[in-house]
Amino acid sequence: MPKPGVAPPESLVQTACPLDCPDACTLDVTVRGGRVTKIDGSKDNHITDGYICAKVRTFHERVYGDDRLLYPAIRRGAKGSGQFKRATWDDALDLVVSKMQEARASAPETILPLCYGGSNGMLTQDFADAILFRRLGASRLLRTVCAAPTGAANMGLYGKMASTSYEDYPQAKLIVVWGVNPGVSGIHIMPFLKEARDNGAYVVVIDPRSTTVARQADLHLAVRPGTDLPVALAIHRYLFEEGHADEAFLAEHARGAASLRERAKEWTFARAAEVSGVAADQIRQLAGRYVKAAPALVKCGWGLERNRNGGSAAAAVLALPAVAGKFGVRGGGFSMSNSASWNIERPWITEPEPPTRAMNMNKVGRFLTEPEGLPVNLLFVYNCNPVAILPDQRRVIKGLEREDLFTVVFDQVLTDTAMYADVVLPATTFLEHYDTARGYGPITLQLGKPVIDAVGESRPNHDVFMDLARRLDLAVDGDPADELEGMLAVLSGLPTKIGDDLREWWKAAPPNGGRPIQFVDVFPKTPDQKIDLFPEALNKQAPKGLYGFQPDPGTAEFPLALITPASDRTISSTLGELPRPAVTLEMNPEDAAARNIDDGAPIRVWNALGEVLVKAHLTPLLRPGTVAMPKGVWRRHTANGFTSNALAPDTLADLGGGACFNDARVQVARRGK
């Protein structure tokens, strides 16, 4: 113990950030007297390169914040009141176990684990939790709130082939940044984009908003939300009809080109311009430059998937380098998620998946309020904040208010969802437990280590789920007894023996030290290693067939497209509890003038699903006809306690059962004083 008046010793501890971002930064964490005092980027990781986003830089505000859950608690007031009575872990888990036993005895599929693990590694998601819920025979959750349409497209066309990594962007002579804003999510692309521009690369951004990246680009196509598909198909038409398709490459490495060509035939530049709201000359300019540039790279993001045409749009974008023959050179091809690049089979999950019903998480509100077949009577929420992230927010809340629904929330802070829990359980943050951090932009794999002791009575995911398994008599010989044994099981199950320093893994295991050249080092993971430009399974799944365009859902009553882009304040909804400037609705001045709305005016945003009360922020950086509120907002940040998700339909994208947040169509009016 330090002497009175003497500062406690300070230490620097290295760990890795597992939060839902492509970059997976290496962190240098300063600890004094057992408390985190500073978080910074490590120079040991050439991607992190000594800097990190502002979100993680202040993550210790979550660790020690007023909303941190410090002990288990049991509800004592009305659901939604946030009134809880402190409990011991034994008492809280005994109550949870008794409810699980009741459900298991009657119908195990009335139990639904609700989670989305973008901010978790291989230990804190899909290990002990998977073992527990599989042995219980619970319903299965389809985690489709994000990346499902793009993932389906990538899997169908390429089998999730590894993509171009950040480090090779500077080799490209043209880069198309499509449906992503790396200025607020995946910030470590930015130096590589700048280097590419300094090397003479022509940068194109396709986004309804004039983001920082768009304002720095050579060409910005401000498309209407949901119209990326016609723009991509118009470029395909140009490639095929004007003799710019690489027929030799397609003959050797692809199938389905004729079907793609047929679907693209109707999309002239003029028709795509009419639908998308961008000038035909801009689309033509992009197509012409794309043909001539070598290497040419398409960075496909997740923003273009959040609508009824999202899967086909992603497929059309990902097909461009195949048709144009842009593979086979460093800095060429496409860049997307590298989440599947490791080919890790997770042998540590010892329980096979049961044939229980699968429930799309975008429909949770309906499952809770309008069940078809067995109702959901026990909801176990972890690694997720459904009130803040799922569509049709009012319906989700109505379901959580059911008195006959027993809800467990296992989280780090008192989330909007935890307010409706019957039992809350405190979880550790990534600074307090072991985990892995996988970069899905750069191909990296790192070991996350605890830098401080668990705060309060919080416990790691692995320990709690294995504890529940033991209490339910579901544990078997060989199950890891605790978090450390679980981490050792993960390490021993990885395909390459790498010891403790996972950061060395990316230098040896992936092709070219984590910098693969597509069609040189890596090839499609389809059965015949060929690109399938028209997968029949996807064609059958899409309501109008693959690459079939569904028109805008706007009406005269609700004409404005509401989009919900990522912000610089939250990672999905993580960190949404921290203080922030008032949430506003971004509007183009033309749309505001037509409604007699001034900058800063109190407004009502509504449609048939609900309404949100905020203030207006007028900006020419958003195209007319489109309004925007950030995703990940918590209820406390609006005047009436509802967020943009209250206006988002629970309809599904054409592929993968994905969410259609950007299909929300709304009206806006000034509120009286």
Quick one: biggest sheet? 6 strands, mixed
CATH architecture of the largest domain: 3-Layer(aba) Sandwich
Return the structural class.
Answer: alpha/beta
- What is the residue-averaged pLDDT? 95
DSSP strand tally: 26
Basic shape: globular
Biggest sheet, spatial arrangement of strands = 5-4-17-16-15-6
> Low-confidence spans: pLDDT under 50, at least 5 residues?
none
Query: Nearest-angstrom radius of gyration?
Result: 25 Å
Structural write-up:
By secondary structure, this protein is of the alpha/beta class. It folds into 4 domains: 10-63, Phosphorylase Kinase, domain 1 (2-Layer Sandwich); 73-142 and 350-506, 3-Layer(aba) Sandwich (Rossmann fold); 164-336 and 517-541, Dimethylsulfoxide Reductase, domain 2 (3-Layer(aba) Sandwich), CATH 3.40.228; 560-670, Barwin-like endoglucanases (Beta Barrel), CATH 2.40.40. Helix content is 27%, strand content 18%. The protein is built from 21 helices and 26 strands. The strands form 7 sheets. Strands 5-4-17-16-15-6 form a 6-stranded mixed sheet, with helices on one face. A hairpin with a 2-residue loop joins strand 18 and strand 19 (443-448). Helix 8 crosses helix 10 (257-264), helix 8 runs antiparallel to helix 11 (269-276) and helix 11 packs across helix 12. The protein is globular, with a radius of gyration of 25 Å. It starts with 9 loop residues before the first strand and ends with a strand.
